Amino acid sequence: MAPVYITREGAMRLSEELIDLRVKKRPKICQEVADAAAQGDRSENAEYIYGKKKLREIDRRIHFLVKRLDVIIVVDPADRPKTEQSRIFFGATVDVEDEDGKKATYQIVGEDEIDLKAGRISIKSPLAQALMKKTAGDVTVVKRPAGEMEFSILAVRYV
């Protein structure tokens, strides 16, 4: 199995989500289910049925997070040696310009941290794969379903 990398911030978000589910959300839903069950006939009690479904979803997510936190490898981009900070690796924040002149900034993160609106892309994405080990000033071609696109790398930094 391939290693599962994540930034320190991403690992903290997963841990906080797990704590929130265990400490706040699950007990609240359990109480709601207990209250609905106390109302009598469970077979026609929508609150009870919905509560049980919600409880299963929370338990499933808790199970996933526990297992995921056991296998992730936390990588702090700021810990990258100064000699390697000019090249693009996991955790790098990269400024690029496409062949149409459109500029964008992306951070290469783990699968659990993807947020396109914030510019965080998966290390497994075609763009991230094309950028790996490149430096500022390099040009790379990304193979997309819509065709190939050329990107110029403007800057690389680790924050």
Please name the defining characteristics of this protein:
alpha/beta, Helix Hairpins, Chitinase A, domain 3, five-stranded mixed beta sheet, two-stranded parallel ribbon
Describe the structure.
The mean pLDDT is 91. The protein is α/β, with parallel strands linked by helices and 159 residues long. A hairpin with a 2-residue loop joins β6 and β7. The protein is elongated, with a radius of gyration of 22 Å. Helices cover 39% and strands 26% of the residues. It has 2 domains: 4-75, Transcription elongation factor, GreA/GreB, N-terminal domain (Helix Hairpins, Orthogonal Bundle); 77-157, Transcription elongation factor, GreA/GreB, C-terminal domain (Chitinase A, domain 3).
Question: What are the SSEs and their pairings?
Answer:
Blueprint: E1 4-7, H1 8-37, H2 46-71, E2 72-75, E3 93-98, E4 103-109, E5 120-122, H3 126-131, E6 139-144, E7 147-157
